[in-house]
Specification:
This protein is an all-alpha fold. It has 2 domains: 30 residues; 90 residues, no CATH class. It is 57% helix and 0% strand. α2 crosses α3 and α2 crosses α4. The longest helix has 21 residues. This is RteC domain-containing protein. InterPro entries: Tet_reg_excision_RteC. Pfam families: RteC.
Length: 127
């Protein structure tokens, strides 16, 4: 009787293993159940540039949580990691790298974004 139960258990395990081999995607344990973002950064974009945006949003206190409290730097960083399929690493260290840069480089990427918007505005005749 116990042998029959053991054999049944082994057969069930074999069926599960066969299913895992046949349908591997269904058995993958994903930590994050959200679908991957369709957006990626170009090779010319550096993580420190994205951190300029993250740091600016954090310091401006313009991003809040669902409950209305200030969004922590790490949460804003995580949102950008998801948005662009990147890993920022230690967000606090990268934040310090942004705010401790030379004055001419402190907002270099944000200045590039501002310039691109101004050029588009001029091209369309708004400026």
């Amino acid at each position: 009787m116990l042998i029959d139960e053991a054999i049944g258990l082994v057969n069930t395990e074999i069926r599960i293993l066969n299913m895992q081999i046949k349908y591997p995607v269904q058995f993958q344990n994903r930590k994050n159940k959200l679908p991957l973002s369709p957006l990626y950064l170009t090779d010319e974009t550096y993580l420190i540039e994205i951190m300029e945006i993250v740091s600016g949003l954090f310091l401006s206190k313009r991003v809040v949580t669902r409950s209305g409290t200030e969004a922590p730097l790490t949460e804003i960083g995580r949102a950008f990691e998801y948005l662009f399929n990147i890993k920022l690493g230690d967000v606090h260290k990268k934040h310090e790298s942004v705010v401790s840069r030379k004055p001419s480089k402190i907002t270099e990427f944000l200045d590039t974004l501002r310039k691109a918007i101004n050029e588009e505005s001029k091209k369309k005749g708004y400026l």
